[in-house]
Amino acid sequence: GQQNNTEYLLEKNKLLRDLFLWSVFMDMPEMAKILLIHQQSRICAALIASAIFKQYSKLSLTVNLKEKFQNQADDFGKYAADFINDCYKYNERSACELLLRQVPLFGNITCMQIAISTQSIQLVGTACFDQTLNQVWYNKLSMTYNQTLIRLSQFLSIITFGLLAPWIIPYREKETNMQDTSLSTKGINYYTDEKKTKKYWTRFQYFHGSPFIRMCYHFVNKFLLNQTY
């Protein structure tokens, strides 16, 4: 019963995906826009369409075709940005996760990967994209507490090589009551495990797993090297 329904939905989504990609490759943007509405991952699909039309524009030999394909690329890029903006207004946390979730229907790629690799100006310019970058930048470190206290605790943790971090640094916790089980969680790895977070060495590893902290260490290292020479 339930397994058959799941398989049916999967096959249906694959069929709609193939029809959508076919309409994009065959340069039928109006049909693609109709099929886009029926896509399970609209943001990802719109970004892929934008990337394809952008590539068509680069390969075109005439000015008219270049402009035509670029306009179509911009249209789908705007669709993706509008979708994520609407999601962000409704729920900021879930919208950020949408950009980082792997999309199995499109080869486990993430919307963020497509936006960066194809230089999607429309999506990169959204508030949601900025917030998502912050999530990745700080990783499992919390950003919801008093900023002054956080900066002080980060400074003290860095100068003690992270030894104080497990006691004074706040960590991000997953809001399990808000989890949408219908969406994939693959690619979302900046939440901490509640049981493991209580362990000193786990919190120590979480602290050093943040790109922001690693960058701070890098700057400190360069500063000390410059002072040495």
**How many strands?**
2
Largest sheet: 2 strands, antiparallel
Q: What is the 3D form?
A: globular
- Give the termini distance in whole angstroms: 72 Å
Structural class: mainly alpha
What is the count of structural domains?
2
Low-confidence sequence ranges: none
Q: Provide a count of the helices.
A: 12
Mean pLDDT: 83
The amount of helix comes to: 55-70%
Order of helices and strands: HHHHHEEHHHHHHH
Strand order of the largest sheet: 1-2
Tell me the β content: under 5%
Keywords: Membrane, Transmembrane, Transmembrane helix
GO molecular function, one term: ligand-gated calcium channel activity
Main location: membrane
Pfam families: TRPM2
Question: Which features does this protein show?
Answer:
12 helices; mainly alpha; 2 domains; about 230 residues; single chain; globular; two-stranded antiparallel ribbon
Would you write up a description of this structure?
- With 229 residues, the protein is mainly alpha-helical.
- It folds into 2 domains: 2-123, no CATH class; 139-228, no CATH class.
- Helix content is 68%, strand content 2%.
- Strands 1-2 form a two-stranded antiparallel ribbon.
- The N and C termini lie far apart (72 Å).
- The model has no long low-confidence stretch (mean pLDDT 83).
- The chain crosses the membrane at residues 149-169.
- GO terms for molecular function: ligand-gated calcium channel activity.
- It is a multi-pass membrane protein.
- It is found in: Membrane.
